[in-house]
Amino acid sequence: MALLLKNARVIDPAVGLDAVCDIVIRDGVIAEIGTDLKIPKGETVECAEKVVLPGLADIHTHLREPGREDEESVYSGTRAAAHGGFTAICAMPNTEPVADEGSSVRFLRERAAAEGAVRVYPFGAITAKQEGGGLAEIGDMVGEGAVAFSDDGHGVQSAGMMRMAMDYIKRFAVPVVSHCEDESLVGRGVVNEGVVSTRLGMAGWPAAGEEVQVARDIRLCELTGCRLHLAHLSTAGSVELVRQAKAAGLPVTCEVTPHHLFLTEDDLTESYDTNLKMNPPLRTREDAAALLAGLIDGTVDCIATDHAPHAPHEKALEFELAPFGTTGLETALSLVVTHLVATKKADWAQVAQWMSAGPRAAVGLPPVRIEVGALADLTIVDPEARVEVTAEWFVGKSRNSAFLGHKLLGKASDVLIGGYFALRNGKVVV
Amino acid sequence: MLSSRHILGMDDLTTDDINRILETAESFAAVNERRIKKLPTLRGLTVVNLFLEPSTRTRTSFEIAAKRLSADGINFTASASATVKGESLRDTAATLAAMSCDLVIIRHKYAGAPRILSEMMDCSIVNGGDGIHQHPTQALLDLYTMKQRLGHLEGLRVGIVGDISHSRVAGSLIPALLKVGAHPIVVGPPTLMPARPDVLGAEVSWDLDEVLPTLDVAYMLRIQMERADATPFPSLREYARFYGMNSVRLAAMKPAAIVMHPGPMNRGVEISADVADSDRSLVLEQVESGVAVRMAVMYLLLGGADSGAAA
User: Taking CB atoms and an 8 Å limit, are B195 and A187 in contact across chains?
Assistant: First the structure.
């Protein structure tokens, strides 16, 4: 089957492409890029005023399967991803049970092959059951297709354990993805330690609770030579530590989330909205500005959602009891367009870098390029689409979005995976 | 009437509201002096004490206040309630709402719980203490007590001494003092301070002896050993040495200065027995004021002004 995308603004900084042109896709592969292209038979899609990007990837998704299929599943989570414009996601291993051996990685890959709407790359746990006591079956999981390892959710508390894991993992040439949270500093903290913890009368989660482990893991990267990717950095101090590590030539990458970029602790009010409870917590305006500056100067490699669906009855609890996390897959791209592209703080090439090439490179996913012969994994964006984030608008199972009520500009209209539509005219079609 | 239907925190009250509550409390205090202390004012109205965290003093104070105004007072306590069986606060609130209450006083272990009730219920909500956040009626009765003894509130220098970071009493007393033009100073070791005491608007000191001579009120907080994750000072003895009120420290204060404590006291820790029992200590006056102030709060929230004079 042939498909012709007409008159799109096609952007892929990896191949130096930024032009209004046509793309012909045959058998799932980009066959031709040029102007005034025609196909003898097949389908033509008019893309004037739209932007075509290499397929977006989210390297921080909680699919909740197995264990909490009431909150999200491979089926629903991958459809939420397509709705948000992603062609690939990485699934975090903190499921129930934890993905800490080969068969759980295989299970996820089989579920994704059977029901997934986008490509799914599993992460495995660093330590058995993510308990920090001993290594998970890392090699077994690599053999079944795990692309990176993480104890995301709480992190590895012991420096010695983390060192051993990084020493062991480096021979597989995959990164360790670190969730930086020193539990002895964070304690029962639920919001940023500082103004908001004082104002709302709740235990604080200090910036140092993250930075101490960022510094530790960078030193361990230096010691072991293992690739290190730092998840959901939230503070100015963390970004500065990564800046220094990169200047020293260490194999360190990092990500930031849309909620840490576009929300701050000032958004937490006496309404105690639990959709704004996330880990790490929303920080200060200065921190958010430092995260953006890090993206722009290349210190921060990518944007990742930390999509964390939660059951409504759990998010309806008292703030201190409610679980941490916000959904993110469906709002990430629109937030970036609204707050960065429409305001001219960033251009489309940077969006492609931060949401496609950057995240893929950070955890070693196969690159996706818009060039002849490449697999047609493409995200088509309508930059003028208006989105009002309401509970009903979501495709995923959970509605615990920190951005409910926001009015956003720009939305993925179509997603192609291997030349097939996963999203078409804004509707998930698989 | 007050400007808000609820008292979830001191933010809900204007300075006028506070003054109205204190004035109304004065007339109820007179009632509390009578042999027959009951008024018909809130007859037929239902006041629920929803106490999901152990409390004897505050609950009893609200209970007596409700009874003196002839309201039907119901106690809903943690041990006797469905919450230990895992019912959520929202379900508890919906259940109470279905029974048509007029006022709910909530005491809860977690900040923001009164707000959840206000979202789920149609009646007035009073925060009886939420986590380490606020305890507004305590602050109101403290203002009342200070005003009765010292004659005025404006310009008073009030040292709040002890575990500021885990104190809902301080969480309400600081904004309450600011609203009436008094000057709060929080005093304690850095390990017992909130991360940003400056945002509360209070002056900060780590040295009690330094500020003591300038104070009109020394407000000693209870050391809550059960709340802290790790003990934030070496020993009770060392705490008392630096931050305990005793007769030597009392002598360093202005002659008319007073000592207050929200109770229950740890004698020998934050306050010595001789000071606690002296006429400079207003601990029992605070308890007494509590009933009158809570009567005033209930009366004003439930539109009691429509049914005639307070006393």
Answer: no
What's the ipTM?
Answer: 0.91
Pairing of strands A228-230, B217-220: unpaired
pLDDT at A295 over 70: yes
Task: Convert the pLDDT of each residue in B285-295 to its tens digit.
Answer: 999 999 999 99
Question: Residue B137: exposed, middle, or buried by beta-carbon count in 10 A (0-12, 13-18, 19+)?
Answer: buried
What does the alpha-carbon distance between residue A419 and residue A415 come to, in Å, rounded to a whole number? 9
Best mutation target among B7, B83, B88 (most A Cβ atoms within 10 Å) is B88
Whether pLDDT at B309 is above 70: no
Summarised one tens digit per residue, pLDDT across range A376-408 is 999 999 999 999 999 999 999 999 999 999 999
Length of chain B: 311
Distance between CA atoms of residues A30 and A347, nearest Å: 24
Return the percentage of chain A with pLDDT > 90, whole number.
100
Q: What is the pTM of this model?
A: 0.94
- Please give the biggest Cα pair distance in chain B: 56
Q: Please check whether residue B134 is in contact with residue A270, taking contact to mean a CB–CB distance below 8 angstroms.
A: no
Residue in chain B lying closest to A273 (CA): B112
Burial of A274 (C-beta count, 10 Å sphere; 0-12/13-18/19+): buried
Structure tokens given for B198:
């400056």
Tell me what the mean pLDDT of segment A57-65 comes to.
Answer: 98
A306 is catalytic: yes
Residues whose CB falls within 8 Å of the CB of residue A211, separated by 6 or more in sequence, listed in order: A180, A235, A237, A238, A241
Chain B neighbors of A198, CB-CB under 8 A: 194-197, 199-200
Residues of B with CB below 8 A from A187's CB? 229
Quick check: B195 and A194 CB within 8 A?
yes
Q: Which of residues 100-139 of B touch A (CB under 8 A)?
A: 108, 110-113, 115-116, 130-134
Which residue is catalytic, options A100, A151, A306, A382? A306
> Cβ distance A59 to A363 under 8 Å?
yes
Residues whose CB falls within 8 Å of the CB of residue B65, separated by 6 or more in sequence, listed in order: B291, B292, B294, B295, B297, B298
Q: Which of chain B's residues have a Cβ under 8 Å away from the Cβ of A319?
A: 110-112
- Please state whether beta strands A427-428 and A420-424 pair in parallel, antiparallel, or not at all (unpaired): antiparallel
Residue by residue, what is the 3-state secondary structure of A364-387?
CCCCCCCCCCCECCEEEEEEEEEE
> Percentage of chain B surpassing pLDDT 90?
86
